[in-house]
Amino acid sequence: MKVNFEHLQAAHCENGVTTNLLKTIGIRNMTEPMVFGIGSGLFFIYIPLLKINNGPAIAFRTQPGLIFKRTCKSLGIPVVRKKFSSRPEAEKFLMECLEQGHPVGCQVGVYYLSYFPKEYRFHFNAHNLIIYGKEGDNYLVSDPVMEEVTTLTSYELERVRFAKGALAPRGQIYYPKEQRVITDDQVRKAIVTGVKRNVRDMLHIPGGFAGVKGIAYTGRKIKKWRDKLGLHKAGLYLAQLVRMQEEIGTGGGGFRYIYGAFLQQAHAFHANDALLDISRTFTQAGDLWRTSAVQAAGIYKGRIGSQEDFNTMGDYLIEIAEIERKAFEALAKIKWHS
Amino acid sequence: MKKEDIPQHDGALNKLTREMVYAVDSNGQYTTALSTGWEVKATALDVAWEDIELRIAAARQKVLNKEASPLLFFMELRLMDTGIVSAYTGFWNWQVKRHLKPAIFEKLSENKLQRYATAFNVSVTELKTMEVHEG
To answer: CB 3.0 to 4.6 Å from A17: which of A128, B76, B99, B112, for a disulfide?
Structure first.
């Protein structure tokens, strides 16, 4: 059994799942950047004290699930979302969805995701993919970060849907409930909501660990890592930062580019040239994130490693924080006409 | 990033797929292109795995020295912390920590050992001996 479905690759899993699921209900003009922007996907948080894989806990995106939820809500699309405690129930519900012709989004853990290369299989539970059919014992899988579709046996799928640990998926399934037509006016409003919410998250979130303040905070922390952790461990921490920043499924530098693309596409709905200027500022931020990653790589490869090198690294983040602060302040000042 | 600057290096993901990347074209318009990988990123992943290998070796030595139970070795091997082990086995966090002591681990019932073995995807014999046969 196979539901009518078109696989399109994306840079980030949840964006891709959202975009591709919206296509199944007839909404074809929602691109990955639009979904990311309307869902207010850009974020930064450094969680002190918490350790992930023996390194710092840093995220460059909003909480998993929010991009889909917010995008659908902003566009007035009803959503079905279910978690399960029973594995047979979870599979039964999945089969029912497919029989009714709904491709569905599933949250999964990557540790047991058999088609991923071993090097990528950490206990990360917020990956997203689409199931769009079943042939024999194989579920048909559209993983948006991949060029091509793939399959998982029913056992393999159950194992990843019920991965354990932080952000355990608990068999979570979600999809837009019914066919919809959205108007340009709805899109215009959704863009405004998405931008305002992202301004709030990046500029006004309380505490010093998140948003643009969190980026500068991390920069100041990095300058102390060499003394505090020793060169070897400080290098490992920087490698973790880069992985969180540039890896598929997370992406930090990449997220800035997607946001830049969003602002360009938003310009088609709101003819305000400030959006194009701010888009360029995000490109600049993304470029600087990448430059900082090159600096970090110099340290974890052992090519450089003086305190001066750590200072440079920290200063990159402090500079990025300033660029992103200005960009979001400019977005906050935009006069929207709708 | 300009489209022509998108790195096309080697990376672990390359065996599976190329990644989609957003970049600007010569007119400053955002577009997408595929990348085979970026050396900076690939090295970050290599560094993480080198550290994991070191941790596994150190854990094995600790078990051989009777400073820790085989649980420690399997936790490093399967990249798990006590929280993840607790979630997969149903033991409490404090129980897992207690079972890390060799004397206590040795007295565990077959049933409890089986719960750990299942979580680590090995047999009870492999769990006790740290000799894992994987394809």
So the answer is: A128
